[in-house]
Amino acid sequence: MSPVPPISPMPAEPAGGTAPAVTGGGSTTAGSPSEPDAPGGPGPAAAPHAKPAPRVGRRAEGVWGWLFVSPMVIVLGLFLVLPTLMALWVSLLDWDGQSNPFSGQADFVGLDNYRDLLTQDGLDRTLFATSLRNNFYYVLLTVPLQTVLALGLALIVNQRMLRGRGALRTTFFFPSVTSSIAVSTIFLFLFQGSGAVNTLLSWIGVKGPNWFTDPRGVLSLLLGGLGIVDPNRPAGVLADHSFMGLSWFEWLSGPSVAMCTIIALSVWTTSGTFMLIFLAALQNIPRELEESAAIEGVNRFEMLRHVTLPALRPVLFLVLTLGTIGTWQVFDQVYVMSQGAPGNTTLTPAFLSYSAAFGDADFGQGAAIAFLLLALILTMTGLQRYALRERTARPGRKR
Amino acid sequence: MVNRTAAAALVTCATLMAATGCSSGFDSGTKTEQDSSSKQHLTVLIASSGDAETKAVKDAAAAYAKESGNTVTVDVAKDINQQLAQSFAGHKPPDAFYVNSDQFANYAKGGSLYPYGDQVKDADDFSEQLRTSFTYDGKLVCLPKDTSTLSLAINTALWKKAGLTDQDYPTTWAQLKTVAAKLTKGKVTGLVTNGEWARLGVFMKEAGGWITDADQTKMTADSTQNAGALTYVQSLLKSGSLKYANQVDTNWGGEALGKGKAAMTIEGNWLTGGMKADYPDVKYTVVPLPEGPSGQGTLAFSQCWGVAQDSAHQAAAVDLVKYLTSSAQQVKNAAAFGVMPSRTSAQAEYAKQNPSAKAWVDASAYAQGPVTIAGFDKVLTQFNTDLAGLATADPKKILADLQRNGEQALAKGE
Questions:
Q1: Residues of B in contact with A191 (CB under 8 A)
Q2: Domains B41-147+302-361 and B149-300+371-413 agree in fold
Q3: Which residue, among A98, A124, A191, A335, would best test binding to B if mutated, counting the most B CBs under 10 Å from its CB?
Q4: CA–CA separation, B150 vs A348, rounded Å?
Q5: Containing H/E element for B193?
Q6: A185-237 residue pLDDT tens
Q7: CA of B26, closest CA in chain A: separation in Å?
Q8: Cβ separation of B12 and A77 shorter than 8 Å?
Q9: For residue A24, what pLDDT is reported?
Q10: Hey, where are the domains in chain B?
Q11: The pLDDT of residue B202
């Protein structure tokens, strides 16, 4: 078994986790929720409702069925289920990666790794809480931005009257096919203190920050600007209370300037992929539907609000889910651009898992972080599904 | 449905067992049997700094192969920490390999390194600080392959422009502060260095403090000496005459020195190669770091030649390492890719060949070796993170956090 760092699959790949990751428990989740939850569509559940065939025939059918899917089952079992279970076991050990974790040479410590991360006051918990905070803001900004941008782009290039549609589609999709490592490196140069971005800003009289070395949270800057809190010396309620080793002020300080550049980068790179998904869905909307709406005399906004968006609901769920999973697993941009610096404000759980495992030879804790991340992603996806569920009882839809 | 679930469970179990059975790399725990034949095949894994180093190591290995009758394959790692971790887990490590000082204690604690220090008769020739760093459980585990120390490098053109002469090279903290302020003008900053313990640590040393005690068994981070050192650094930062390399859009002090953004920097002897490659026209001179309240102080860095506990060729691998760390070979390496020998006897020869590197060679007499404690990587990373914000932070709090985090890591490592 080879532990592979959890290089998070770009959200562009719905089938995601190809890497059998010890530390990347998250990657194993990418497979299941990727199927859009088409309500009312013909699912596998439809088969049992059909009139039952004679018993013998069905059994033979089952055997043949298993035979046909066995290659995939074996591949999935060997490279997905098995490593996940192994990693789960490792997360209960104090394992330094230099012995056999399945022979009792590594100490079984029960839930100690999880306890260090969640309840025990110390560096581990502070770092984990910091990484959660950073990633939370990252998800909070990236997912809505990239979805709205992707939808907007898709609506633009879906117009039949638009000239040069093909060229535009290619252009918008281009960032997604470029290697994220290469793009990250280019961004490093663009956002240098004396880089292109700051030069542009200086033309309009704005002195840009030194993006990648600026650990100040943008919310705290905002609060500081309004004179509510002094960001350098926070006092009062916010500084006196803490949760998981971080003060309320630290929780609320928002993404750092450095994190904002990473957010900009990922919005830019992923929106093309999601644009493609939206575009495919838009072209699936029956023309008659739009035409009849047009005859009714709706304007463009009403068309979007009451015809297009409802038709896109399953795809919207898909895009939001893929976006959430992808953003909670962000690793490669952080690895290339900042490695957690400045001031730990770009530290993410995926990167922390990697550095705990390979930097400190604490593979147990690395695996534990990965599983906490997995639990978090599952919860988020569940919440999203609940929020976007088909509300059949809504009166407006019956018209 | 029950049948189907049962079948699925059965298939999963079968796969699990097959996979566990197949993973031959994972069993054992038994001692590896030693190969005693006269012609053995050795594998070596290195993390090379470039083609020059790769070629030098390969040539040396070939020369050894010719002399001993063994064959040697040298592989270059892309990410040596990860590759070694994987090979240790699979019990199929290379016979000899570079060990980074930040990983040394993790490997030694895990029992992956074969301690061969007692087989090296002239081990005393290696500097004592480095031997301490590569000692685990009272045993010298591996030999430092080379070393580097920190000194003060000065851009001579900027120095003259500020009206300073050779007499003005700073020898005390007060003088450093004065010249740094004098040199800071326009786009030039007096002193530029990375905001991390591996550079700023020299001030802790000069103040008479350090992160741990000499045996690395106790944290001594929250001492008044350390607080004094960080307060001094903070005063330089606040005055603007010291800036971190990333504040002036550079990655390290050498780049700042070469681009003329820094008049002085604190760097090691790798600076020579970097300046020659990127800024061949920039003149600079290297002088010892100024003395602090407790005299001279600097830091030394090194990697060591590890021999695998799981190797079947331990004797031959130790033989190879002895050959590669011999005085003659170290002098050759120094000429080939600019590293400083870790043997005191070879350092004299090195100083003769590279008179401009005298400050670095002399510094190894009083340099502090790297911290090698298992699980300490994150503690020092956190310290670096805190040091990056030193300008506005409370030095005492930074040190108190370091003390606490370090004590936790020490407690966990026991």
A1: none
A2: yes
A3: A98
A4: 33
A5: strand B189-193
A6: 898 889 888 888 888 998 998 888 888 888 888 888 888 888 777 776 776 77
A7: 5
A8: yes
A9: 39
A10: 41-147+302-361, 149-300+371-413
A11: 95
Look up the CATH superfamily of B41-147+302-361: Periplasmic binding protein-like II (3.40.190.10)
Query: Which of A73, A123, A127, A347 to probe the B interface (max B CBs under 10 A)?
Result: A123
The DSSP secondary structure of A78-98, one letter per residue, reads: IIIIHHHHHHHHHTTEE--SS
Interface of A with B in 216-235 (CB under 8 A): 232
Split chain B (414 residues) into runs of 10 and give each run's mean pLDDT.
Answer: 55 51 46 78 89 90 91 92 86 92 90 92 88 91 92 94 92 94 93 94 95 91 95 95 91 92 93 89 94 93 93 92 92 86 89 88 91 90 92 92 92 77
- Render pLDDT for B252-293 as a digit per residue (tens, 0 to 9): 999 999 999 999 999 998 898 889 889 999 999 999 999 999
- What ipTM score was computed for the predicted complex, to two decimals? 0.79
Q: Are B131 and B123 in contact (CB under 8 A)?
A: yes
Tell me whether A89 touches chain B (CB under 8 Å). no
- Write out chain B residues lying below 8 Å of A340, CB-based: 381, 385
State the burial class of residue B55 (Cβ atoms within 10 Å of its Cβ: 0-12, 13-18, 19+). middle
Residue A99 to chain B, least CA–CA distance (Å): 6
Q: Rounded to an integer, what is the distance from CA B27 to the centroid of its chain? A: 33
Closest CB from B15, B378, B408 relative to A77: B15
**Do B88 and A98 count as a contact with CB atoms less than 8 A apart?**
yes
Count other C-beta atoms under 10 Å from residue A230's C-beta.
Answer: 12
- Give the CATH H-level superfamily of domain B149-300+371-413: Periplasmic binding protein-like II (3.40.190.10)
Q: Which of A82, A26, A101, A9 is nearest to A352 (CA)?
A: A26
A361 vs B103: CB contact, 8 Å cut-off? yes
B401, closest residue in chain A (CA to CA): A123
Taking an 8 Å cut-off on Cβ atoms, the answer to whether B110 and A361 are in contact is yes
> Please, what are the domains in chain A?
14-28+54-120 (no CATH), 122-217+254-359 (1.10.3720.10)
Closest CA to B378 of A330, A75, A125, A135: A125
* Cα separation, A321 vs A309, whole angstroms: 17
Distance CA A27, CA A8 (A): 7
Instruction: Using a CB–CB cutoff of 8 Å, tell me whether B379 touches chain A.
Output: yes
| Whole-Å CA distances, B8 to A66, A73, A101, A108, B50 | 9, 9, 26, 29, 52
Q: Where are the alpha helices (DSSP H) in B217-343?
A: 224-239, 253-258, 270-278, 314-324, 327-337
CB contact set of B1 (below 8 Å; sequence gap of 6+): none
Task: Supply A369's token pair.
Answer: 């972080």
Q: Record the tokens describing residue A104, joined without a space.
A: 């009792």
Query: For B259, phi and psi rounded to 5 degrees?
Result: -80, 0
Q: Shortest CB distance from B11 goes to which of A73, A85, A127?
A: A73
Contact B12 A78 (CB under 8 A): no
Identity of the amino acid at B202: V
Q: What is the spatial distance between Cα A169 and Cα A166, in angstroms, rounded to a whole number?
A: 5
pLDDT tens sequence across B292-316: 999 999 999 999 999 999 899 999 9
